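User: Fold this, then the next.

Assistant: Folding the first:
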Amino acid sequence: MRVDLFDFELPDERIALRPAEPRDSARLLVVDPHREAQLSDHRVSDLPSFLKPGDALVFNDTKVIPAQLEGIRHREGAGGQQVSATLHMRVGANRWKAFAKPGKRIKVGDRIAFGDSGESCLLGALDCTVEEKGEGGEVTLAFDLSGPALDEVIHSVGHIPLPPYIAAKRAEDERDRADYQTIYAREDGAVAAPTAGLHFTPELFAALDKAGIERHFVTLHVGAGTFLPMKVDDTDDHKMHLESGYVSDETAARLNAVKARGGRIVCVGTTSLRLIESAAQNSGEIRGWAGATGIFITPGYRFRAVDALMTNFHLPRSTLFMLVSAFAGLETMHAAYDHAISTGYRFYSYGDSSLLFRKD
């Protein structure tokens, strides 16, 4: 499909720079292609009223790490050069794939010292070797430290990698360490937050429990590739970056039981949806799954397991806008985004949310 089919104009002032307070006071646009009034305006705190007892919410419990690193590249016969790297996928106890800048000047064999020496001296230096180099500035870094020791230093010297549309307007601060994290995050490894989950509060969880809505958790470590723009004109030419995650056998069995008794699977965020669809069979059965998924969902995709999706508002010409268009219909989603823009919804990671029901 042509990528420009998924384009729209977003006024700059619609980009949210901070989350709503309290989190569940954010606006919620309900999009139901099966109702005469397909669009209706609500608050996230109203979510229980759109679900029914026996439905199940599926959350991504990945935890954002301070994966933005700044350092100096060293090479024999050359002076030091300032570089930055955003870790996006762990591939070993001491190895990470990362997007590096300036990517063209980094070579295999280069040594990079990250962090200010005054910050890291108590824990050890955060030094690494460039082991491999891929396309688009992607590199594989082999760190001198490994396992928990490496994790500790990354947390000490790294920064929260704010999305570029926020970072271009303000610097990361201490508040982002809490704001850019769900209240149920527990599995370290994400570069970006599963942002639909940022709207949940203990009060909303209590209301969902009272309404008889189940909660289940899967893990997909969101990578920096989620922020990369599409550089092709046709979706057939786009290659998705891989993201690692897993669905436990126990969670798969419980979700299958929900479907068997007539309940609906409602994914909180496109990350949990992509993971559940990766684990689902053609029959709709969900199985335990672990690995790296590069599933790319565009209109025409046949959804196997997910019935509804709660998700924030996404960038134009993005893979995520393509996904929601596949889920609820391209025309429906263009109408929904036009409505959201004209009525003042806040967009992107810290913005408002939507609840989409599957068109088929």
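Now the next one, as you asked:
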Amino acid sequence: MSVLEVAPSPPRRAWRSPAVRMGALAVLVCVVACADLFAGRGVTGEGVRAVLLGSGGDSMAEHIVLQLRLPRLLVALVAGASLGVAGLVLQSALRNPLAGPEVTGVTPGAVLGAVAATGLGLAGWDSPTAVVVAACLGGFAGAGLLWLLAGREKGDPEQTAVYGVLVSAVLAGLTAVVLLVAPGELGSVVQWLIGSTEGRVWQHWHLLWPWAAVWGAAAWLLSAPLTLLRCGDEQASAAGLDAGRGRAAALVCAVALTAGAVSAVGALGFVGLLVPHLALAVFGADLRITLPGAALLGAVVVCGADAAAQLLSRLLVVALDADRLTLPVGALTTFVGAGLLLVVARRRTDER
């Protein structure tokens, strides 16, 4: 018997190729994007198909599909991708699996900036540019405060995690104070705190995608230093990397990506925390591959959650006999993310 006869190539392992997994994720992105586009109210599935194919549809249907649903879909995809990449960058740079944007001062700072600007009348949901600027300033301020407190600890993940929780709590408290200054902005504050894709228009998309593309590319260029930082500062220094500078550059990218996403959709809970774990499980520790994978997974999670939230809203309207009821996508990501986090924590406890 020849060698070729006893050692056939196993075709079942083809799915393990990163290219195959990336292709499968790209297909999944298209699936959830179609689901999100067809899930909304006001236009039937046939109406959406007619508008997209250019084979008919009244002016109202065209407005809903092309001016409301399509930009909402695109913003959800890019915001999810930004949060997925930002979370992976933070966890790699700080060597902490719980270092999501939500607990490092980045997301609370961005929310505080947007809410404060809205409460003071400097910005609002109808002025996306001002909101983007305010959220970015707030996000960088929150990350800067964390850096001042923990920057001298040489990247100690435990100390950084403690300071991150404290900074996030302080910023969340300051956000609550905004209600005392401008109680009439309660609805806007709740939208920012929970996260919503409702009312996203083309202006949000035109502001978000160039920002996300630039900082996402910068994060990918840092994939090699980030991989070294995951191994520890000593190993990174032995390989010739300045750990302090590498970590600072990575944090700037993570803050910028998070601030851009928050400025568009508010604080989506647990996306930046859990998506990196899923990306590492699917693609492994090579961040040159895992960072794009985290972007696709984040897009799938947020867009899929948005489609599910719209479908649940329609069901709740019928069940409760309400005129209008909107389930924010951030409420769904927080609920599902918290449940998954509890399951993972319980499994690790049982394994010990």
